[in-house]
Amino acid sequence: MRSFVVRSIESALRRRGAASSNRRLFSSDSAPERKVAILGAAGGIGQPLALLMKLNPLVSNLALYDIAGTPGVAADVGHINTRAQVAGYVGEEQLGKALEGSDVVIIPAGVPRKPGMTRDDLFNINAGIVKSLCTAIAKYCPSAVVNMISNPVNSTVPIASEVFKKAGTYDEKKLFGVTTLDVVRAKTFYAGKAKVPVADVNVPVVGGHAGITILPLFSQATPASNDLATEDIKALTKRTQDGGTEVVEAKAGKGSATLSMAYAGAIFADACLKGLNGVPDIVECSFVQSSITELPFFASKVRLGKNGVDQVLGLGPSLSDYEKEGLENLKPELKASIEKGIKFAKDN
């Protein structure tokens, strides 16, 4: 069973890198030492994310932190016979030790969405959690690449930037909002509608990470499909935007998108590790500091490198009229979310 799971995940990661012969999965013999810390590792996203990162041969040291429950999670995944050495840390007094020496810090900490709850409803609780954790990151591992999963990402990334600025440690190349789940959903939904193998599909998703701020660019999807009508594209766009709500409602009050989010988080963290290790041509979509629009933060394709962001890429060759309209429509909401995060950080 173990070998099947590991082979399956490694195969998936290799498929994602098939565009370049250099984008292979490192073996544990050739990969440098890399420490990954997961903050919120005992939660619904954190536990499956811990499992997936334990299976990643690029990880040599896996630190699992939460306010409770992490010794058990660490003991559980620590028995898996893969490269990463696992340690669990509990409570604020152990946070520094969890973070020290980290190359990548992944933050899924916070409360999950519940039925009827928007990402904005999560703001007051999760904003305080993110601010506290980022204050510790600035102190204990200021050079780490930070992968922000905690919602609302459109606000928590700006909060993190302000915390790091205040601490004098901000490096815009090392702060990422993880929007990979939007890409994963867009690929899945597009493949199903266009009737093409999902493993071959690529769909860039730009904008932000909530509702209408999520803008999948199906006009740039590969392989291209001539069978999709405008109404199909509109339906695919709305389903991608409402993907989180679809899961919350399907779970009927008993959870949100945890498993698919953990998968997406593991995919993005793997890309960051490859970039840090010098693998060329690693490109993923992410919510980062950006100048491709008038907004200070924006999700688009990003080339990853040894220092985090190597290059923020643009919106691609062209947008359809529908996508141009969507881009203009998302800007006011995204701008307000960014400003809300900045104001929170400055006022608290």
TrEMBL record:
Its EC number is 1.1.1.37. Residues 35-177 form the Lactate/malate dehydrogenase N-terminal domain. NAD(+) binds at residues 40-46, 66, 126, 149-151, 261. Substrate binds at residues 113, 119, 151, 185. Keywords: NAD, Oxidoreductase, Tricarboxylic acid cycle. Residues 179-344 form the Lactate/malate dehydrogenase C-terminal domain. The active site is at residue 209. GO terms for biological process: malate metabolic process; tricarboxylic acid cycle. It is an enzyme of class 1 (oxidoreductase). One of its GO terms (molecular function) is L-malate dehydrogenase (NAD+) activity. One of its GO terms (cellular component) is mitochondrion. The keyword NAD applies. It catalyses: (S)-malate + NAD(+) = oxaloacetate + NADH + H(+). The keyword Oxidoreductase applies. InterPro entries: L-lactate/malate_DH, Lactate/malate_DH_C, Lactate/malate_DH_N, Lactate_DH/Glyco_Ohase_4_C, Malate_DH_AS, Malate_DH_type1, NAD(P)-bd_dom_sf. Pfam families: Ldh_1_C (PF02866), Ldh_1_N (PF00056). Homodimer. Belongs to the LDH/MDH superfamily. MDH type 1 family. This is Malate dehydrogenase. It comes from Musa acuminata subsp. malaccensis.
